[in-house]
Amino acid sequence: MHCRFCQTPLQHVFIDLVNSPASNSFLTREQLNEPETFYPLKVYTCPNCFLVQIDEYKKSDAIFDNEYVYFSSFSTSWLAHAKRYVADMIERFGLNADSQVVEIASNDGYLLQYFAEKQIPVLGIEPTANTAAVAIEKGIPTITRFFGTQLAHELALTDSKADLLLGNNVLAHVPDIVDFVAGMKILLKPTGVITMEFPHLLNLVEQNQFDTIYHEHFSYLSFYTVSRIFESQGLVLFDVDELPTHGGSLRIYAKHADDPTKPISPNVTALLQKETATGLTTMAYYSHFQQRAERVKIDLLYFLLDQKRAGKSVAAYGAAAKGNTLLNFCGVKNDFIDFVVDANPAKQNKFLPASHIPVVHEDQLKTQKPDYVLILPWNLRDEITQQLAYIREWGGQFVVAIPQLTVW
Fold first, then answer.
1. Are 161 and 126 in contact (CB under 8 A)?
2. Does 246 score more than 60 pLDDT?
């Protein structure tokens, strides 16, 4: 196996989460007695460019199929984040009715709808047919294709080049990250701007966020490595924001290398220095992560065993991909967790892969009154605890496992 970016042979294992089904491959009741396909979930660190990456055992076209179950619009905090982004970009870059905004991995139109409200022309690119259909129903023009150089060339010929080209939580999802970035350069107008948001590798390591590793995430990205990848394709990062989303993310701003209209922000040097000071550009930084994940596994299993012995009931909230990684690595099944609540109807009345925990509507919490609610999408902890504050009425408590087991 070689690095997806620099082709250096990969031998340094960052973490091995053993075998797992694809994290969003939810099961119907009829499928519970059928065999499931498991894939190795091993992650490597490149000693040359420090790109942390998974081997592509699970093919992307099999992951992002027509029944993809992640809809961005079901998180109120994420919608608020998108709305703020739109307002900021319009103000900063002077976008108007003569501009073209293109979003890669536009999902159900959760973000482009806010540009459209301002009469700014938009185009979504979304490979999953069911989420794209929802966007189209909202009036968001959407192409149901995977993005890369081939599609970028086709769109460039149709006068669809972007003044603002954006993608949220997609850069880590692409198996060929070099072709993806090359495609963005093709589609970007001479003075256009690219923004990409993705979870910051530094936070993954510092906060023990190993559950954000799953087959759909091919890369785990630092600012240092992303800078090198973009520069290799004639793009320069001229600014960066550190965001609280998804446990700590980066929003990068890129331009053509020959675009003189945008000065390089001091934020660029500051973040590169921060990563270097943390040790992120040394292989020693990536050691001992396996042991830290195993500590979480042991603590969660002891907690669940203790509650089982005491006759207490445990439910979970949020049938998120990160939750499936956590549960499958820990070997937790439906004998320890009764059910998981999720607001997305596409997940309800299905079962989590491998663990076979049923996914239900929130009404079940009020009916069953579990003693504990394990919050799987810990990045939405505040939003969820506020939403479910009523579990205190029967003495219910919240639990998170990342970065360490916490009960309150």
1. no
2. yes
What sign results for the dihedral spanned by CA atoms 32, 130, 324, 336?
negative
23-27, 126-130, 258-262: range with highest mean pLDDT = 258-262
Pairing between β-strand 52-54 and β-strand 39-45 as defined by DSSP bridges? antiparallel
Pairing of strands 122-125, 142-143: parallel
* AA identity, residue 390: Y
Is the CATH number 3.40.50.150 carried by domain 146-286? yes
CB count, 10 Å around CB of 139?
12
The rounded distance, in Å, linking the Cα atoms of 113 and 43 is 36
Cα torsion 264, 265, 269, 274: sign: negative
- 3-state SS, residue 56: coil
Q: State which amino acid sits at residue 231.
A: E
How much is the average pLDDT of 19-37? 90
290-407, which class in CATH?
A: alpha beta
Average pLDDT along the chain: 93
Residue 47 tokens, joined:
């000693």
The answer on pLDDT for 68 being more than 70 is no
**Residue 286 to residue 281: CA distance in whole angstroms:** 9
Helix axes 289-309, 321-330, angle to 10 degrees: 80
pLDDT, position 66: 42
Give CA–CA dist 408/399, Å, rounded. 7
Task: Say yes or no: do domains 146-286 and 290-407 share a fold.
Answer: yes
Distance CA 109, CA 79 (A): 10
Per-domain residue ranges for the chain? 146-286, 290-407
| Gap between the Cα atoms of 375 and 389, Å rounded | 13
Q: What is the per-residue DSSP string for 325-336?
A: HHHHHHT--TTT
**Residue in the structure block whose two tokens are 């810990």:** 378
State the angle between helix axes of 223-232 and 266-278 in degrees (0 to 180), rounded to the nearest 10: 120
What would the two tokens of residue 242 be?
Answer: 């550190």
Q: What is the rounded distance in angstroms from the CA atom of residue 48 to the CA atom of residue 222?
A: 13
Whole-prediction pTM value?
0.89
Share of the chain above pLDDT 90, in %: 84
